[in-house]
Amino acid sequence: MSYSIAEAARRSGLSIDTLRYYERIKLLEPPARDTAGRRAYSEEDLAWLSFLTKLRTTGMPIRRMREYATLRRRGLASAGRRKAILVEQRGAVAERIAELQSSLEILDYKIDNYERIEQGAPLPREASA
């Protein structure tokens, strides 16, 4: 099955401009073309776009994504380096999750204090901020 650029954009959640940009910076291989010369994205293209979107969601810089894409084109010989990139990114994501969890705990603590205020209960001395 193949998809037009508009359909690929809709399915991937990326804009048409982003798809063209990813192609231009070599994150995405140029897709096949239909008989009229229009881009025809494959299921494999869409799966790759989904993975790229996940990498962006983790905060991976475009520069590192480009390195990963270049290594991917080299095949199995680059598997070790690709794994290292993902392990490094996983560490950064785990650190960010820990930061967010700490922030969530503080928010929960403050919300609990405001609920006590609303119920007329006395607050601990340090909770008055």
UniProtKB/TrEMBL annotation:
Q: Does the keyword DNA-binding apply?
A: yes
The record's GO molecular-function terms, alphabetically, read: DNA binding; DNA-binding transcription factor activity
State the SUPFAM superfamilies in the record.
Putative DNA-binding domain (SSF46955)
Task: Keywords in alphabetical order, please.
Answer: DNA-binding
Q: Is Transferase one of the keywords?
A: no
Specify the domain of life of the species encoding this protein.
Bacteria
Domain HTH merR-type positions: 1-71
Descriptive protein name:
MerR family transcriptional regulator
